[in-house]
Amino acid sequence: MRSVYVFCADGFEEVEGLTAVDLLRRAGVSVTMVSIMGRTKITGARNISVNTDILIEDIKEEADMLVLPGGMPGTLNLAGNETLAALIRSYDDRGKKLAAICAAPSILGVMGILKDKNAVCFPGFEEKLAGANVLDVPAVTDKNVTTGRGMGAATDFALELIRVLQGEDKAKEMAEKIVFHC
Predict the structure, then answer these.
(1) pLDDT grade, residue 86 (50/70/90)?
(2) Residue 102: active-site member
(3) Among 22, 27, 61, 63, who pairs with 5 as Cys (CB 3.0-4.6 Å)?
(4) Percentage of residues in the chain with pLDDT exceeding 90?
């Protein structure tokens, strides 16, 4: 079974994070919500509290993909976490799958991970996608990195994650099951 870590920090965009968690779980992917805040209760950008499954320091095995929701100040909190940065760098160095949506692709951009890749982000963050070919689509995957534009593209992003992890047929099946663009 495929596995994914979705990283949560205070101020994360709830729709982006939870849409990915929900659709991936519906598709049969093992999803673990990971807090970087030193506690499992996280409060999102719209003051919605969620309980994560584990703390970042409790990660004991690798997942198939790391997912970074956007939102403010959630993206800044994620960007400031050295343990997460080291994990992202380790995954990228080995070509393992990374995903970020909204403002969070800026984290990958600043780290140089998006250089010479197609990517998207929330409007206004394009300059942080250092060396990327910035597109105007809801979600895109280039090599090992998937990026999404923002909350309005959360379902497109989650379906793209399913496509990357489980193939086109599974992504289409899930889109039909949730009546997406039907």
Answers:
(1) very high
(2) yes
(3) 63
(4) 98
